[in-house]
Amino acid sequence: MIEVHTLASGPKFVRLYPMRSRLLPLTCLWVGLVLTGQTHPAEPLATPLSAPKTDAATNSALLPSTAAARKGLYWNAATDRYAASIPGWPLQRVLARLSAQTGWRVWIEDGIETQVPPTIRAQFRNLPAREALPRILGGMNYSLTTASNGRRELKVFATHARSSNREIIADAGDEVIANELIIRSKSGSSIDLKHLAGLEGAHLVGTNGVTGAYRLRFDSEKQAEDARQKLAKESEDLAIENNQRFEVPDAPVAVTGMTAPPLRLTATVRPDGNRRVIALIDSAPQPLGPAFQSFLLPTVDVVPGTPASDSPSHGTAMAEAMVRGLSAGSPETSTSTRIQPYNVYGASESASTWDVARGITQAAQDGSTIINLSLGSAQDSPYLRDVIQQVSGQGALVIAAAGNNGSAAPFYPAAYETTLAVTATGRSGQLTPYANRGGFVDLGVPGSTVVQMDGQSWVVQGTSVSAAFASGMAGALAQNPQTPLAPVRSKLIETFPVRLPQGP
């Protein structure tokens, strides 16, 4: 294996290293949840994504046309050349995007964040790797090698390549919907809908009466950007932002010879008929086994439809993880707490800021006081932030996944102040390599579970699982609907402290 090193000081050299297989360490790792008697799995390999569109005339990667979507990192697979418009991102975020674009496995030396610039800024087009990488990496040492299977590996380090011991999980990015705007009044004043409908290319496709927000879709990205600028000039009272996508997290992995422990909890009804309800804002769960299904209320379709799949949907896995948490936290063998799924994905592989906000407001109106968000992105949304702040102010406990980029960068909605952010731990109680670890994180909860479906076992892992498990725990600690949730929040933080991994 050949490593090409570029040092911060400039010189380059080539060094030969023997290749080391990752298969043996992976086969030695256990799978499951600590609190349910299981152990923790290794993270799945990142899947290479398709290359962006190219311009036949220049054969270079095309940057998107609007200012909002222009930020990013792009790779032309045909020419192995790169384009970037990085306005100031943490190194981990840059590497996660690079891995998603190229399909490379990317490794970083733990603790290197303290030795790099706080943010990376880069602007270029059509550069080869030898010129693009020094700009992307902010001058850090790196090695780029090709394994026997043809897959490249990038290692970023301060001292030696072998010190790169933490893998960065691929992240395709914030997926701004460049032709859609969410518009609302900052002061709560009424908005002239005729004026909005009269904007060039505009179509009013959604309203949220609870938040006073409107969703506009335009025939083109340029029309949306022109409308944004026009409205901003007309009124300082309008809050305007792009709608954006939340992609479904990693799919479950089929396994053999592995089963989850039986559920030792039954669903009961309180004499007064009241109950605590946990809202699951996710894709629609498929039918579960009878032991689990009894805890679920009928799914509310914020977005109608379900994707066709022979494997457990993300909502299915989160529902089971939530019931596991409910069981682990219940002092008795029965509980009146129920789970109310809100389908915000429909038949699509992605949800949107708009629909997630609709699910949250609908759940709060329906009486859910614990709201689980096992989704997110690196892109901030002031609209979603304000919606979460609103329901939190009404007494709801909002619990969200901290993200799977192995990064300290903010991940939303988990990073919002009123949200309880949950990251993933392994059997030792320390953070998993993929788990986000920023200062916004509140809890570290086991991040793996096993789901049974049609006689097949599936391993599901990630901070999504951790958040769902924590939400179930919260529902167990506060199954009496009169129990205040502030002490429950404090109890979860006390029970699941965040333990940073040890240095190399």
Describe this structure in words.
The chain is built from 12 helices and 26 strands. With 504 residues, it is an alpha/beta fold. Strands 17-19-16-21-22-23-24 form a 7-stranded parallel sheet, with helices on both faces. It is globular. The model is unreliable at 1-70 (pLDDT under 50).
- Beta-strand residue fraction: 25-35%
Work out the number of β strands: 26
CATH class (first level) name of the largest domain: Alpha Beta
- Shape, per Cα inertia axes: globular
Low-confidence stretches: 1-70
Strand order of the largest sheet: 17-19-16-21-22-23-24
> So how many helices?
12
Which fold name is given in CATH as the topology of the largest domain?
Rossmann fold
| Structural class assignment | alpha/beta
Mean pLDDT: 82
| CATH homologous superfamily descriptor of the largest domain | Peptidase S8/S53 domain
Total count of domains: 3
The radius of gyration computed from the alpha-carbon positions, rounded to a whole number of angstroms, is 23 Å
Helical amount among residues, as a percent range?
10-25%
**What's the CATH architecture name of the largest domain?**
3-Layer(aba) Sandwich
Q: Main β-sheet: number of strands, strand sense, barrel status? A: 7 strands, parallel
Distance between the termini: 23 Å
